[in-house]
Amino acid sequence: MRVRTREDLRRERRSRSHGCWDHLVAAPLWPLHGANLGTLLRTCDAAGACLAVPRLPWVPEALARGNTLRRPACVHWTGSPVRWLERQRERGSAVVGVELAEESVRLGDLPVARGRTVMVLGHEQTGVPPEALDLLDVVVEIPMVGTGASLNVAVAGSLVLYRLAGLV
């Protein structure tokens, strides 16, 4: 077995960075921890997605710290999270929420995104707020065997992004 070099990887992947993928958008609209935003930003680059975040005072610094790629990343800024989600639906986007809910789809059963898709992540402790739940077309749940109730936002978002992108 031969390990691929950085040069091998560069040849196999896209030839330039993107301005905006606009096909797949990760939206942690109620963030709690800046470290999770940095991790999601890196995953967005890997999965070919953009990141949508609210304009909170601490978010730009968290994104700058988390952007280990050291080049501009595709970030969309939102105002009111609920209003932003309403506009995405009006544009025809599918809205997929990552949440523990009665009618959720297991991650393994989630289909690959075929059109513009927004993946919504809730607050680390309280999840997606009730006023936003009605805006979700599909709710996906990540099965767990251990004793924890859920994964953190960065890990859950990364798993679902890879599934929606068709990379797993």
Automatic annotation (TrEMBL):
Q: Which InterPro entries match?
A: Alpha/beta_knot_MTases, rRNA_Methyltransferase, SpoU_MeTrfase, tRNA_m1G_MTases_N
Record keywords, A-Z:
Methyltransferase, Transferase
**Pfam families, per this entry?**
SpoU_methylase
GO MF term (any one): RNA binding
Q: Does the keyword Repressor apply?
A: no
Which one GO biological process term can you cite for this protein? RNA processing
Per its UniProt entry, which superkingdom is the organism in? Bacteria
- Provide the tRNA/rRNA methyltransferase SpoU type domain boundaries: 35-162
List the PANTHER family hit by this protein, alphabetically: OBP33PEP LIKE PROTEIN, RRNA METHYLTRANSFERASE 3
Q: What name does this protein carry? A: tRNA/rRNA methyltransferase (SpoU)
Its taxonomic path starts at: Bacteria, Bacillati, Actinomycetota, Actinomycetes, Micrococcales
